């Protein structure tokens, strides 16, 4: 949901390269982990990944007329269903496909992938971590979504502040203030996404608990 | 299996939702009503470019980027999902 909605050229080439490199390193780690540690190339994982990619891509391109226009991309749901490794690869693909249709710049894919990987990972670990709190799956998924999207917004702000925006005269404090307000508005949509994710996860838990087997296993 | 405390679950989630929604409304009130790109450009101090004509969409829901490419990619993804599901 947090997404750096800036055109190519907003970041310098140096920072675009750094974020791209970091994103590629993380994606390679995700692939290595899936292949050599998890050894999960079974069809169930592939089906979940395919479904999540299609759903996330479909919903991410829709501008929702709330607060003047916002986006959802279901990253916390992807994290809960697929885990951080599969989720990381999914968000990378969704960012590439989004840039391919003109939603977001190619240079921003690296930075946006890092933001989305944060959302996926935080949601997954929060959902798992709350098992011992004896909360319902609806609440756990909802709280995990809020936590994931909050930290995704924080990552987005940090990336923009560190990179700086080319051709802008505002001070970093002004940018921080502006982005904090933007993150605040984004969190309003996070509430809707939290309720939606809560319902989807609790429904899946009822009809296909095996799909949540990894996130549900006790730590 | 573990026993779920439903009351605690709803109270905790409800409190978080209300707190986040309240803060979000304050942020919206302070920043004002604007589109996503306008909000981003204003936040980082980028001068607004030439006005782009935006379609009103269906009930205000618009598709970002090229709608034709969106449809093509979505259809390809759905077909791939079906193939994987059937092969399973």
From TrEMBL, chain A:
Pfam family, one: CbiM
Entry keywords, A to Z: Cell membrane, Membrane, Transmembrane, Transmembrane helix, Transport
Record has Transmembrane as a keyword: yes
Cell location: Cell membrane
Spans traversing the lipid bilayer: 12-33, 45-64, 76-98, 141-163, 175-201
InterPro entries the UniProt entry points to: CbiM/NikMN (IPR002751)
GO biological process: transition metal ion transport
Topology relative to the membrane: Multi-pass membrane protein
Major place of residence: membrane
The protein, known as: Cobalamin biosynthesis protein CobM
Species per Swiss-Prot/TrEMBL record: Methanosarcina spelaei
Lineage, highest ranks first: Archaea, Methanobacteriati, Methanobacteriota, Stenosarchaea group, Methanomicrobia
Automatic annotation (TrEMBL), chain B:
Protein name per Swiss-Prot or TrEMBL: Uncharacterized protein
Organism of provenance: Methanosarcina spelaei
TM spans (from-to): 12-30, 68-86
Superkingdom of the organism of origin: Archaea
Keyword terms: Membrane, Transmembrane, Transmembrane helix
Keyword Transmembrane: yes
